[in-house]
What does this fold into?
Amino acid sequence: MVVMLQETQFKTSAIPKFEGRYYNTWFHNSHPSKKACGVSIAFDKTFCPWLLSADIDPRGRFVFLELSVDQSIYTIANVYFPNQDQPSFGVKLLRRLSRLAKGSSIIMGRDLNMVMDPAVDSSVGKSSISPSALRTFKIALSSLRLVDLWRILHPGVKDYSFHSLAYNSYGRLDYLFISQALLDLHPCSSIAVWSDHAPVFGLLSPTPRGVRPFT
It folds into this structure.
């Protein structure tokens, strides 16, 4: 099992210790001076990858981990987008990710702070992001051969991971992207509505030894 958390809001000097029974390997990234942003990646005790390299944003926006698992290379990426200029941030981030991934299979968890397709990902059917900006971001995703796992398994379905009390609206802001090659592993995905930001689950099966479900 791989768990990816966004907007953890831990100060760099005050990251709590996580010593649970099941998750004993953690990678954290926090804002250096305030309780803002922050992402974490956790591996359960049965997952034993070899860390090859890492790229960590100094502002607490992302963690990229290049891992070797049973002679295969995977890149696990966890990202928390800003709430302004999201497509521009995303395009730059994907360029940076491509330099680390180098053709490896990618699994990416994200809080995009925007919807990918307003017609089906927003209860109000619109977005403050321009269609051209969204299109540019989608082209960048395609260039890395990344697909929106939940959407590709649930085409046309309206389900949401975020509720805005201020606007009384719902949106799918939380995403799992995977390399197209991983679609051969019979994936499944679901959204569990527990709070204002709902977790998104994904499973790849049959699974090579050591590659686990991710959230």
Observations:
- Confidence is low (pLDDT under 50) at residues 207-212.
- The first helix runs from residue 86 to 101.
- Residues 124 and 167 are 10 Å apart (CA to CA).
